[in-house]
Amino acid sequence: MLQSTSALLLVASLLAALPVNADGLYAKKSGVLQLDQKGYNKLIAHSNYSSIVEFYAPWCGHCQNLKPAYEKAAKNLDGLAKVAAVNCDDDANKPFCGQMGIQGFPTLKIVTPSKKPGKPRVEDYQGPRTAKGIVDAVVDKIPNHVKRVTDKNLDEWLAEDEESPKAILFTEKGTTSALIRAVGIEFLGSIRVAQIRNMEVEAVEKFGVTEFPSLVLLPGNGQDPVIYDGELKKGPIIEFLSQAASPNPDPAPTKAKASEKPKPSEPSESEATTEGSPKPLVPVKAPLSAPAIETLATAEALEAACLAPKSGTCVLAFLPQSGEPDVEIAGHAKDALESLAEVSHKHVQRKTKLFPLYNIPAGNTASKTLRAELGLSEDTQTVDIVALNARRGWWRQYDPSAGADYGVTRIEAWIDAIRLGEGSRNKLPEGVIVTKEEFEKKAEHDEL
């Protein structure tokens, strides 16, 4: 009997000495994201959301005591911020934990997005190790992209990029809640979100708001405002606003279960092979290139699309004069058109609205005139990209920098700045926009 007991104790001690499962303290179904360095870089460092990350060891008593509060915090912060954990006892994670300066367990760090993608602000959490303490600290760090609007500046805000959809929360609160800030993050770059207090009488009457809080969607393109009548929860609100634009994609773990693997498809007769023989190679389809942007080949087409009195924002790519007819464009002009096409294609795939982008060939008789009126280069071999808005009377030019960068990254950043109303604008010179009388006269002539 003594020998049997001793044997059991020996087995128990050996099991206790075995390496801890890499999943550590948190089960796969936990609301706490389990990360390694790659996951941290993808899901946390490049996220638009704030996060809190626990660095722990499964054998640590303090870590085990924190687990219930940390999982409760993850549940309360669901949809508002990310709650994650890194098992520093896992050999694969030890170098990463060292890079993060971890010297004791548990260590909690709050990660907040910065203006530099992939380089967030990281600071130690020093508050109480309770669910409430963690939630309060993280909520305080949620980025706020919601504009505070009053009766005085409402019209100005509505006039900014009129074609883009907007959403307004009418509320009795003077602060911006975590929920509406999370909505602003979700639609960052696609829907402008604002908040108006119930004391702003003119704004309240303008949209016919009678209850607070109320969320109003302005779909854009002259469509009537729509008042949301669902639950004030993030999921239903996102679904409601998605009718105007798709949510901004943010790194997030997939919902598919680990056990759910794609089933292999049955081979066709041509693919069938005898046992032991090599399987035939399946040709990989080349990715489809983005469709070219529309060309405005005539002065009339350019005037109708972008230079009429009520024309909205247009981006125009003025191409250089080719030395020989029917020669395919090359160099910077080709790079510019391909980049613009890719940006346009991205918005089509995301189902987000973007103002039109046009190719203006040198053969368009209005090209040289408009170049001169805007004070662009007289060099017939240059490519110039400008954005203009006839209705608002402004224009701005793309700066390719000294390196003549017409790559998609720089051009997309310039276009995003226009969409967000950022950057300086120039006043359109007189004579650029076709007068109402001229436009109506030309329209009548076209109808005849």
From TrEMBL:
Residues 1-22 form the signal peptide. Its main location: endoplasmic reticulum. SUPFAM superfamilies: Thioredoxin-like. Its EC number is 5.3.4.1. The keyword Amino-acid biosynthesis does not apply. Residues 257-266 have a biased composition (Basic and acidic residues). It comes from the Eukaryota. Keywords: Disulfide bond, Isomerase, Redox-active center, Signal. Gene3D superfamilies: Glutaredoxin (3.40.30.10). It is found in: Endoplasmic reticulum lumen. InterPro entries: QSOX_Trx1, Thioredox_PDIA6_C, Thioredoxin-like_sf, Thioredoxin_CS, Thioredoxin_domain. Residues 14-144 form the Thioredoxin domain. It holds the Pfam family Thioredoxin. It catalyses: Catalyzes the rearrangement of -S-S- bonds in proteins. Transmembrane segments: none annotated. Residues 243-283 are annotated as: Disordered. It is an enzyme of class 5 (isomerase). This is protein disulfide-isomerase.
